[in-house]
Hints:
It contains 7 helices and 10 strands. The protein is an alpha+beta fold.
Amino acid sequence: xxxxxxxxxxxxxxxxxxxxxxxxxxxxxxxxxxxxxxxxxxxxxxxxxxxxxxxxxxxxxxxxxxxxxxxxxxxxxxxxxxxxxxxxxxxxxxxxxxxxxxxxxxxxxxxxxxxxxxxxxxxxxxxxxxxxxxxxxxxxxxxxxxxxxxxxxxxxxxxxxxxxxxxxxxxxxxxxxxxxxxxxxxxxxxxxxxxxxxxxxxxxxxxxxxxxxxxxxxxxxxxxxxxxxxxxxxxxxxxxxxxxxxxxxxxxxxxxxxxxxxxxxxxxx
Length: 269
């Protein structure tokens, strides 16, 4: 009886022993390969200064995907049919993808933002119908603070689906303003006063030079454009102060601003 049992065990080992050993080797070697690939991907992404959050996610995802293939290969080596298993995984993945298509769109947009960096934290942007300062860029959402200090969380897909205007991308910006004067005023004098206003402001850059000129002969006023270049950080202060100074200087010089006054305004484009 003992001889029969030993013989059966030897037969089983002869049939399945090699397969078991091969499956174990596939698992062990595959795991080391997956760990190596994960480390290599993380190293390359860090060298290219990719966001740490994206580095962690992509490297971990690559590890789990490779391990899934390793496990399937090991099961197949044992003689277990994996076709049905793969089909079930595929169907489950499709169902999950359809259920989470909105989240997946936000995720894809988040990955693109972290890779191509159309803006960074601290930038003043207009995107997704919101204008504000970027406080955080996450995998699914972007956190922004509006000028009136409201925190708004915008889905990444909404930010990426339209135009993104980054007002902080450049070191300098042009302040576009317009002011109207009476048809009775001396246009050369008006231009000299405007030039003196800009020349007296140290925040206005000499290069590129400011632009001042007659832009329109309106129904009740002659409209000048005033376009100084400033550092991006000085943009709002220069715009507000210049409007105030223009009114004060015009009053002192006897230059008429027709009533109703044409507002001095910012032209974003």
